[in-house]
C-alpha cells in the first residue's frame, strides 16, 4: 500500500503492507552514501538483516543512539554532527532513521537543518514511532523540553510490520496511539476499540494493521492535537520530585487519562469514565497515581508548565474538540482528586 500524505503543504509518501526488503530491491542507492541512524536495541536486533539487503559495494555507516524515546536531544545531536564531520561533505547522503520516536525526529531534524545534500527516509519500528513520523514538526530537546524545532516531513515513510516487536508494554504504548485518535477524533472509533480489544488476550493476539488507514487519516486532519493530547498533564510529572517513579510512557498514559477527565469535569459531557478505566485495567495498563506524588505538587508542576506557555486541548465531548485552554488550579485539583477517588471505587 502506498499513499501520499499531505500536512500543511508538506508531503511524504507512506508505504506499508509490504516489506522493507521489497522496497530496497526497487530503489537505487549507488550514488548516495547510506547513513542509518538507529537505537542500540534495534541495531542489535536488525543490523545484520538490514545490511544484507544492500549491495556489498554500497557505502553504508551507522550512528547508534540510546534506547531512550527522548534521544532527539542536544547531546545526541551534537555527537551525531561530530561523527558526520569526518565524512566527505561533497557526497550525497540518504539518511535513514530506523527505530523509535526519538530517532525519527533526530533523523528528520538532521536532514532539514544540515548543510549536507541528503534525502530522508524513515523506517519507524512501532506504531508510536510511525505516528510521530506523521507530525510535520520535529524537535530537539534539552532536559526533556523542546529547544529547537523545524517543519518537515521525510521523503518516504516505510512501515514494515515484520520488523516490529509489538508485544508486552510496546503493544500497550502503540495501542495508546489509537486510543488518542478515538478521544480526539471519533467516539465511534473508540467504541470499535472497546469492542474488538476487550481484554489483554485479544489485544496481544490481534494485529493493528487493519486500523492504519484510519489512523493515518486522523493524523492528516488533527495530527498535532492527537500527538499532544496528554502532553501538558504528562509534563506536570516531570516537575515533581518523585516523577522519576513513572516511566516516560507511563507519564504520557496518565497524562491522557487526566486530560480526558479534566475535559469532562469542565464541560460535563456524558462519558462512562469509570468503565473506561476498568477496560484499560483489563487490557493491562497501569493506572495508579503514585502515592509518593502529592496532588498539590503535581498540580503545581502542571501550572509551572502553563506559565511557560503550555496549553491543553479541551474536549467538547469524546471525539470533538472544544478549544485550546490553560487549565486553572481549581479544575486541576478537582480532576486529580476525582481520578484518585475513581480508582478507589474500582478497587473496592
TrEMBL record:
Top-rank taxon of the source lineage equals Bacteria
Q: What is this protein called?
A: 3-dehydroquinate synthase domain-containing protein
Naturally occurring in which organism (per UniProt):
Enterococcus haemoperoxidus ATCC BAA-382
What Gene3D superfamilies does this protein map onto? 3.40.50.1970
Amino acid at each position: 500500500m502506498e499513499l501520499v500524505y499531505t500536512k500543511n503543504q508538506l508531503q511524504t509518501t507512506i508505504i506499508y503492507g509490504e516489506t522493507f526488503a521489497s522496497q530496497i530491491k526497487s530503489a537505487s542507492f549507488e550514488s548516495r552514501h547510506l547513513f542509518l541512524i538507529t537505537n542500540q536495541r534495534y541495531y542489535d536486533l536488525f543490523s545484520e538483516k538490514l545490511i544484507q539487503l544492500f549491495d556489498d559495494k554500497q557505502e553504508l555507516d551507522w550512528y547508534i543512539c540510546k534506547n531512550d524515546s527522548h534521544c532527539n536531544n542536544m547531546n545526541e545531536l551534537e555527537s551525531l554532527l561530530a561523527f558526520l564531520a569526518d565524512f566527505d561533505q561533497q557526497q550525497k547522503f540518504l539518511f535513514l532513521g530506523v527505530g523509535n520516536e526519538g530517532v525519527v525526529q533526530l533523523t528528520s531534524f538532521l536532514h532539514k537543518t544540515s548543510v549536507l545534500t541528503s534525502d530522508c527516509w524513515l523506517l519507524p519500528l512501532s506504531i508510536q514511532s510511525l505516528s510521530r513520523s506523521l507530525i510535520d514538526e520535529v524537535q530537539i530537546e534539552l532536559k526533556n523540553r523542546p529547544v529547537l524545532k523545524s517543519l518537515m516531513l521525510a521523503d518516504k515513510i516505510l512501515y514494515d510490520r515484520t520488523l516490529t516487536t509489538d508485544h508486552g508494554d510496546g503493544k500497550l504504548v502503540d495501542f495508546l496511539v489509537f486510543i488518542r485518535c478515538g478521544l480526539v477524533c471519533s467516539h465511534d472509533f473508540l467504541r470499535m476499540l472497546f469492542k474488538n480489544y476487550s481484554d489483554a488476550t485479544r489485544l496481544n493476539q490481534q494485529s493493528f494493521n487493519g486500523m492504519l488507514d484510519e489512523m493515518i487519516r486522523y493524523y492528516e486532519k488533527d495530527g498535532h492535537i492527537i500527538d499532544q493530547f496528554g502532553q501538558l498533564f504528562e509534563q506536570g510529572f516531570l516537575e515533581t520530585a518523585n516523577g522519576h517513579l513513572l516511566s516516560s510512557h507511563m507519564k504520557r498514559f496518565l497524562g491522557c487519562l487526566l486530560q480526558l477527565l479534566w475535559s469532562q469535569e469542565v464541560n460535563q459531557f456524558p462519558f462512562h469514565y469509570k468503565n473506561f478505566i476498568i477496560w484499560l485495567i483489563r487490557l493491562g495498563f497501569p493506572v495508579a497515581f503514585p502515592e509518593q506524588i502529592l496532588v498539590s505538587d503535581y498540580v503545581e508542576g502542571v501550572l509551572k508548565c502553563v506559565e511557560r506557555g503550555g496549553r491543553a486541548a479541551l474536549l467538547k465531548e469524546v471525539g470533538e474538540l472544544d478549544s485550546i485552554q490553560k487549565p486553572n488550579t481549581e479544575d486541576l485539583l478537582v480532576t486529580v482528586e476525582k481520578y484518585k477517588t475513581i480508582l478507589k471505587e474500582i478497587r473496592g
